[in-house]
Design brief:
Radius of gyration: 16 Å
CATH topology: Chondroitinase Ac, Chain A, domain 3
Order of helices and strands: HEEEEEEEEHEEEEEE
Shape: globular
CATH architecture: Sandwich
Distance between the termini: 45 Å
Number of helices: 2
Largest sheet: 6 strands, mixed
Length: 163
């Protein structure tokens, strides 16, 4: 019984879901896999953090400018947290929004910025069209969203975000 309780608490703490209001996971040097709202997954590897911090993922409800979103924008908190080892972030995009933009899943990128108005950094991203997700590596927490580049050129030579 005691072991079951410990496992349940451990799993609940690694969720930033809206249903777990007030419950924010604390992650330390050992790393963690965090499941956030709307299918967000954040994989923080061991050694990425030097000390424990409380993580939160919050829907951005104010206007987003300077980017073409195809999914919901979220703020990864604490904003500006730097990682010694890149962190993997996966977010869901909306296929209906993508189709309305006349774009294919291959055009989706994880967009990352320190503010809702940008400037947005288009990250080298991996798309899983069957799951409607986009994944990229980041070296700091910021505001992120699945989006399309404002340019016609969607190639990016940037592997990680530093904003």
């Amino acid at each position: 019984m005691r072991l079951l309780l410990v496992l349940f608490v451990g799993l609940a703490v690694l969720s930033c879901d809206d249903d777990a209001e007030g419950l924010k996971p604390t992650v330390g040097p050992e790393g963690a896999l965090i499941y956030g709202p709307e299918g967000i997954v954040v994989q923080i590897p061991a050694g990425a953090l030097s000390a424990p911090i409380e993580i939160d993922i919050v829907l951005v409800e104010e206007g987003i400018a300077g980017v073409k979103p195809v999914g919901a924008p979220f703020e990864f908190l604490p904003l500006g947290t730097q990682f010694a080892v890149p962190v993997t972030v996966t977010m869901r995009y909306e296929p209906i929004t993508l189709a309305a933009a006349g774009a294919s899943p291959e055009a989706v990128r994880l967009m990352w910025a320190g503010a809702t108005t940008g400037p947005w950094q288009e990250l080298a991203s991996e798309v899983a069209a069957d799951a409607n997700t986009v994944t990229a590596r980041v070296t700091s927490f910021a505001i992120g969203l699945p989006g399309l580049s404002l340019d016609t050129d969607t190639d990016s030579d940037t592997d990680t975000a530093t904003d």
